[in-house]
């Protein structure tokens, strides 16, 4: 079979595989499941899943905040009438389980064998406005929860079906917004918050940003490829190869049932810029051989022979950089690392099948600059090489100073995260969440499981008293602005049995009185707030609340103090407690971030070390290779510390990815050096020749990588912004280290023992 026939068969086979991949890509769906960011396989997650199955999820709700007109209060009849109408509308929507609103909040009163629910507010009776507002401010649980302290806003809280997906969630939110407009509420007078809102906004933005960033990356890379090669095929062929790899990678992801989320949305952009490396190295070397007058077929064979080994090693190290993310217990990061790592290997496969096939079928290109006129890149790189060696002490000294300063600055990095970490502070969604932080109880949920000791129930008087003491601590010291527990139920029933008087809102003073109250609890057993706080058999209870989103550092400190309080003030023979909830699980991710990052970096370093040892059989050379790639990582860590950027779920992946990508050029450099040393006994001449051969590809690939990642700084997600900015900076510092520190370190540390040159030798030209 001729090479041309083999090329045609290769293209047909790859086209068929691409068609299959395209079918699966068409099935891809976008997803933002809050639960995916919990630490998978963690005992606390297993416990929370059992807990939520009994009491419900703590984040299946939407908060709707409504502001009164300027100069008015929420107690005016016209405003309350609209709030009541809106409450009834929401209650009738599909997927709405229960609605809590100032206009449907009631003060239950038991008379005889009946229960009468007396509303706190009477919109249709303006004469009762003063009495109603006074009662509201005296009643626990209303002000700061349903009504703002300054009486300028109210909250409607509606509980939704568990884990509602985006389409029905969007329909619900759209219906609510339409009704708000019909009721005369302007967009700047209402605020929405909750998991459902975040899910809707995040998925829509993911879709938009994926299209925008891919378009920007394609335009930017196309421009850089044209400036580099000045030929249409030098632009089109790399794009075809990398876009094909993206299609295969996304198709594989879809075939495995994985959706696009906040992390995997980075895969196409990441692969687009990273995957260019092999194609650029191949085309650069191919152009060089053609420039020497080599025949097309021979030039291609030489290129594949010389580039294959280095490209294979670099693809391996880059993919390992992504595969190490699989050490994370967070499912989106795990999936991102797995499928991006596989896609990098697919890019390598296409670079050495699809690209050679296309080059073989194309006519031999006419080069713009013949060899006789010289190559400008050789001149620039030659001068740079001389300057670097002439000022090597300055280069090393300056690098050492920057490194010391970076390490000192990096020590200031803290691991901290919040519920809406990926949104900038001025984002409309975050501002809406901030509205509830400022005017109401907050948006961060709190959950404490209550388990009575053996032989007791949740309605045992000692259990209730200890629960009440915990409530007091949480409100006065911990920072909860709203608390509900079985104590709330018993106090409410006691108040209802005593004419609804606020003075009777307290725990009973004796077991006998409590027994009477417990018997009457069955009158209220069907109320949603009762079912959500106590199991039907009273074998377990729930203490729930809301507070401002204080961040994981503050939350960890508060939880340490809370656990100490529980050990000192709670008798395990009476009541046992366990901190749980979605916010607690998100905070727990931080405990794993540092370990995952260290594990990932360690695996990367070990793999690079093994590769260098395999190539050079030299520990000194291993150190030489690691230094120029670790220095940029430490410098960027210093930048993070200096800028006050916290380590969180999104930024924790930066260092392992950046190291895996940055070492790519180093692998290409040293693999070419290894081949050069086979025909050049002088280490100095071998390093210089390698510098000239690899320098252009190193600069071009680094520019493309930095440019591609820089498009991410326009993201509305802070996590994506920092991934683009910090990885871009790492690669920028990396290419500087590659072209300055690396040749100096090789010449100083590597002890090359010249070997007898064997025949035949590879065809290598400088």
Query: Gyration radius, to the nearest Å?
Result: 33 Å
Task: Characterize the main sheet.
Answer: 4 strands, antiparallel
From the 3D coordinates, which CATH architecture of the largest domain would you assign?
Up-down Bundle
CATH class of the largest domain: Mainly Alpha
Total number of distinct structural domains: 4
CATH homologous superfamily heading of the largest domain: Multidrug efflux transporter AcrB transmembrane domain
The poorly predicted ranges are 369-374, 757-766
CATH topology of the largest domain: Multidrug efflux transporter AcrB transmembrane fold
Strand order of the largest sheet: 2-5-1-6
Number of strands: 10
How many helices? The count is 25
Beta-strand content: 5-15%
How helical, in percent, are the residues?
Answer: 55-70%
| Mean of all residue-level pLDDT scores | 84
- Overall structural class, as computed from helix and strand content, comes to alpha+beta
* N-to-C span: 34 Å
Overall shape: elongated
Please characterize this protein's 3D structure:
With 766 residues, the protein is α+β, with helices and mostly antiparallel strands. The protein folds into four domains: 1-30 and 231-365, Up-down Bundle (Multidrug efflux transporter AcrB transmembrane fold); 61-161 and 164-200, no CATH class; 378-411 and 584-754, Multidrug efflux transporter AcrB transmembrane domain (Multidrug efflux transporter AcrB transmembrane fold), CATH 1.20.1640; 447-547 and 550-580, no CATH class. 61% of the residues lie in helices and 8% in strands. It has 25 helices and ten strands. It has helices at residues 3-25, 43-55, 77-91, 129-138, 166-182, 195-229, 232-255, 267-274, 276-291, 296-323, 331-351, 354-361, 376-390, 392-410, 428-439, 461-478, 486-497, 511-521, 528-531, 552-569, 582-616, 619-643, 654-677, 683-710, 718-749; strands spanning 61-67, 96-100, 106-111, 114-119, 153-160, 190-194, 444-452, 482-484, 541-547, 575-580. A four-stranded antiparallel β-sheet has the order 2-5-1-6, with helices on both faces. Strands 8-9-7-10 form a four-stranded antiparallel β-sheet, with helices on both faces. α7 (232-255) packs across α11 (331-351). It starts with a helix and ends in a 17-residue tail after the last helix. One of its GO terms (molecular function) is transmembrane transporter activity. InterPro entries: Acrflvin-R, MMPL_dom, Mycobact_MmpL, SSD. It comes from Hymenobacter elongatus. One of its GO terms (cellular component) is plasma membrane.
């Amino acid at each position: 079979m001729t090479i041309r026939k083999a090329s045609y068969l290769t293209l047909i086979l790859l086209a068929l595989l691409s068609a299959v991949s395209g079918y699966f890509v068409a099935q891809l769906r976008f997803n933002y499941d809050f639960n995916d960011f919990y630490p998978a396989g963690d005992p606390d997650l297993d416990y929370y899943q059992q807990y939520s199955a009994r009491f419900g999820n703590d984040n299946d709700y939407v908060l709707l905040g409504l502001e009164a007109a300027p100069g008015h209060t929420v107690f005016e009849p016209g405003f309350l009438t609209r709030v009541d109408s809106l409450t009834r509308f929401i209650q009738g929507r599909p997927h709405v389980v229960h609605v809590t609103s100032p206009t449907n909040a009631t003060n239950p009163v038991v008379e005889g064998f009946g229960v009468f629910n007396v509303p706190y507010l009477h919109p249709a009776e303006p004469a009762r406005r003063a009495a109603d507002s006074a009662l509201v401010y005296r009643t626990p649980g209303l002000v700061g929860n349903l009504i703002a302290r300054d009486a300028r806003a109210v909250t409607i809280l509606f509980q939704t079906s568990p884990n509602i997906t985006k389409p029905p969630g969007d329909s619900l939110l759209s219906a609510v917004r339409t009704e708000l407009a019909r009721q005369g509420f302007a967009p700047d007078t209402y605020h929405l918050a909750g998991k459902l809102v975040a899910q809707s906004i995040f998925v829509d933005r993911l879709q938009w940003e994926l299209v925008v960033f891919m378009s920007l990356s394609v335009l930017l890379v196309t421009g850089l490829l044209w400036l580099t090669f000045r030929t249409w095929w030098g632009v089109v062929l790399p794009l075809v190869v990398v876009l094909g790899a993206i299609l295969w990678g996304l198709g594989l992801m879809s075939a495995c049932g994985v959706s696009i989320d906040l992390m995997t949305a980075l895969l196409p952009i990441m692969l687009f810029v990273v995957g260019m490396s092999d194609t650029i190295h191949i085309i650069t070397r191919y152009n060089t051989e053609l420039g020497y007058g080599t025949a097309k077929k021979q030039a291609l064979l030489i290129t594949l022979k010389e580039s294959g080994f280095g490209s294979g090693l670099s693809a391996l190290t880059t993919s390992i950089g992504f595969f190490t993310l699989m050490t994370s217990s967070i499912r989106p990061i795990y999936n991102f690392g797995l499928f991006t790592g596989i896609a990098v290997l697919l890019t390598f496969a296409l670079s050495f099948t699809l690209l050679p096939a296309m080059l073989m079928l194309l006519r031999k290109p006419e080069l713009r600059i013949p060899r006789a006129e010289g190559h400008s890149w050789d001149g620039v790189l030659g001068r740079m090489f001389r300057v670097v060696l002439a000022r090597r002490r300055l280069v090393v000294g300056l690098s050492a100073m920057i490194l010391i300063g970076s390490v000192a600055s990096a020590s200031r990095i803290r691991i901290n995260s919040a519920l809406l970490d990926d949104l900038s502070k001025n984002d409309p969604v975050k501002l809406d969440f901030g509205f509830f932080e400022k005017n109401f109880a907050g948006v961060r949920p709190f959950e404490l499981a209550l388990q009575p000791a053996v032989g007791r129930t949740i309605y045992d008087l000692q259990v209730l008293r200890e629960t009440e003491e915990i409530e007091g601590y949480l409100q006065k010291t911990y920072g909860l602005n709203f608390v509900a527990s079985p104590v709330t139920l018993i106090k409410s029933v006691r108040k209802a049995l005593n004419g609804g008087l606020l003075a009777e809102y307290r725990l009973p003073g004796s077991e006998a009185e409590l027994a009477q109250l417990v018997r009457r609890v069955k009158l209220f057993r069907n109320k949603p707030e009762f079912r959500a706080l106590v199991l039907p058999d009273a074998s377990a209870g729930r203490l729930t609340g809301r507070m401002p989103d204080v961040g994981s550092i503050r939350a960890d400190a508060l939880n340490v103090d809370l656990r100490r309080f529980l050990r000192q003030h709670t008798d395990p023979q009476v009541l046992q407690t366990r901190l749980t909830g979605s916010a607690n699980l998100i905070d727990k991710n931080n405990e794993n971030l540092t370990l995952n990052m260290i594990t990932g970096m360690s695996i990367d370093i070990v793999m690079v070390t093994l590769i260098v040892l395999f190539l050079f059989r030299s520990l000194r050379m291993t150190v030489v290779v690691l230094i120029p790639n670790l220095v940029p990582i430490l410098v960027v860590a210093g930048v993070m510390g200096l800028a006050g950027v916290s380590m969180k779920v999104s930024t924790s992946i930066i260092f392992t990815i950046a190291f895996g990508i940055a070492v790519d050029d180093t692998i290409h450099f040293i693999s070419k050096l290894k081949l050069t040393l086979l025909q050049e006994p002088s280490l100095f001449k071998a390093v210089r020749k390698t510098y000239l051969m690899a320098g252009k590809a190193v600069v071009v690939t680094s520019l493309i990588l930095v440019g591609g990642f820089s498009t991410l700084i326009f993201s509305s997600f802070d996590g994506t912004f920092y991934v683009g900015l910090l990885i871009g900076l790492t690669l920028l510092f990396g290419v500087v280290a590659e072209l300055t520190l690396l040749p100096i370190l090789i010449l100083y540390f590597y002890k090359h023992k010249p070997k007898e040159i064997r025949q035949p030798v590879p065809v290598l030209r400088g």
